[in-house]
């Protein structure tokens, strides 16, 4: 069966041609009510949850896994802040319709590091018993720099008290060095963007609450270089019928990432609209300090939790490795 037919048989939505300025685009519509009923289409709480980390590749993973016809992906919205019947209902209200042949899937990059209490409460009380979690971990130094660039650009778009409050919350202190280092020049583990990369600590807490078999950890570095092998791993972890193919992901020389091309989903192409954000040049000494700081945390990841990604073993370096 071709991709479009398969999608049209399973999904609660369809894409119809729409002419805009002489060009044919596609508009997504809900299927007719009778079909929605037969397919059991409704908003349902996720059976698959992407839990982070921030800047780990969660946006691309969400969108690309959502290309699978057996997956109904809803754009990430953070529930809460308190988890109650009402806030969970409101969260569910933001989801797409899911048919009985699909798994409802969403997530938020904050679950792993900042919103664990909410995550645990939801898993205990609200989410389906068979819920599975996907966690994307990326070289913590790259994650940190990417996070800094993103956070700074958000701060620069704000003004006055609002900016000050945001900078305080995020621990931004005027420069990359001031944000990451304490008064003695050591990497500051209390800096929020440093703390987020100490994955071993958060993983320890996660495994105390959620069984290991329910969690798949994906290498965000490998996913960025080529999303296809990671997506196949996720398909298998979720016991989905194999659907995603190598030809669905094409490297874009300008954007420097893979973009998607699946005929049933004209709405998903590249995750970033233009070029990937360029990372600042980092002083050699600072880079070495950061890699040295994270090395014992990465070692714990391997020794205690069996995470064997290449960057976990990398010795500290003053170059920014690939
Ligand atoms: N295919 C593809 N397309 C676009 N971007 C990709 C892709 N694969 C991985 N990435 C990397 O994802 C990084 C952003 O991560 P997140 O989406 O987790 O960020 S967020 O915290 O949820 O906003 C972002 O990090 P930076 O490159 O450092 O900006 C991307 O490199």
TrEMBL record:
Pfam families: Sulfotransfer_1. SUPFAM superfamilies: P-loop containing nucleoside triphosphate hydrolases. Residues 46-264 form the Sulfotransferase domain. 3'-phosphoadenylyl sulfate binds at residues 138, 146. Disulfide bonds join 259-270. InterPro entries: NST/OST, P-loop_NTPase, Sulfotransferase_dom. One of its GO terms (molecular function) is [heparan sulfate]-glucosamine 3-sulfotransferase activity. Keywords: Disulfide bond, Glycoprotein, Transferase. This is Sulfotransferase domain-containing protein. It comes from Strongylocentrotus purpuratus (Purple sea urchin).
